[in-house]
Request: fold
Amino acid sequence: MTTRRLTLVVEDDPSLFRAMASELRRMGFDVLGAATYDAALDHLEARVPHLICVDVGLPIQSGYELCEHIRGPLGLDVPILVTADSGGVDDMANAEAAGASAFLKKPFTMRQLASYVLLLIGPAPRELPRGPRISP
Reply:
């Protein structure tokens, strides 16, 4: 039996969110979704996920600002995977400075997403099957 983990996907593109959520569920995650900075904070105030995926190009406030808030005022030490349309050295440096754990340039495949997730937090823990108890 797989122990389910929780991830928050902050992505304003509905089709990309659906694809990411489907892959993460396949990997054994429960998925929370947010399309804005404020919606993401609402989720993070209620519970702490095992992983956060953040799109840099959010409306109003950027994904970089969200990362800074997660690391600063919220003080969370959770892996953050940043996704962005551009993937230059400056973009990666900005993500790292904001507190991101990894950077994934769009467009990406779901296999690439899965690889990054496994790199950041490893495979889901599995429970050992229950066998008969042996008494001394």
